[in-house]
Design goal:
The chain is built from ten helices and seven strands. The radius of gyration is 17 Å and the shape is globular. The chain has helices spanning about 1-15, 30-35, 55-60, 90-100, 130-135, 145-150, 160-165, 175-180, 200-210, 220-230, and strands spanning about 85, 85-90, 105, 110-115, 125, 135-140, 170-175. It has a three-stranded antiparallel β-sheet. A two-stranded antiparallel sheet has the order 1-2. A two-stranded antiparallel ribbon has the order 6-7. The two termini are about 25 Å apart.
Length: about 240
Amino acid sequence: MHRARRLVAAVLALAGVTGFVILNPNSYDNIPDTSAESNSTDQINESSNDSPLAIEILKRLEVKGRAPKTGYDRKQFYDGWPSIEGCNLRQRILRREFGDTAKLADDNCSVLAGEFDEPYTGKHLQFSEKTAISKGVQIDHVVALSDAWQKGAQNLSKDERYNLATDPLNLLAVDASTNQDKSDGDAATWLPPNKFFRCQYIARQISVKYKYHLWVTEAEKTAMNTVLENCPNEKAVGIE
């Protein structure tokens, strides 16, 4: 995946488009036989020529005020990283992002080393040992769980909240310190420092919120529209 992503980036650069490309957002990793066996409720199709524009899907999202955070707890969604087809979900996302550079432990799950293009900062990160990965990389919920809770997730069933928290579209391996800066911010309060990734980031947030019937605030919608004005042809993901 790493080499493929660099190839796509090069093609985009020749076409006059600059930005990061996150491949296969619908899969837990880059191994077809394992991702294909994942829970079908967690799977979504990638963007295609038939996918609607993100800015059009944004118009379908309900606009409401933020609900109280009362009752929020991450355990309302899940209790730690679950095992997906025998492998820890964190390791699956690392494996997806590191692609063919990932060095795996004997369990064929744990990522010991590798490198990837980190989307939030735009930096190319390299890791030679597992402890460095643990300290330097976090798995971010693109739509933060507490943000989701205040915008409709508290009305979802337990299974729906679990699917939201473990959906591969809503998970990215990112720089740990940058993710700490994001915290539970929405588009109105935080955007990736890497401006070239913002269109994909917003399209993901919109797709996740639409899929799980979450709403946006007026300020959030305005911020999303502002980003998408620079990329009006950005596609939504997994929506027909």
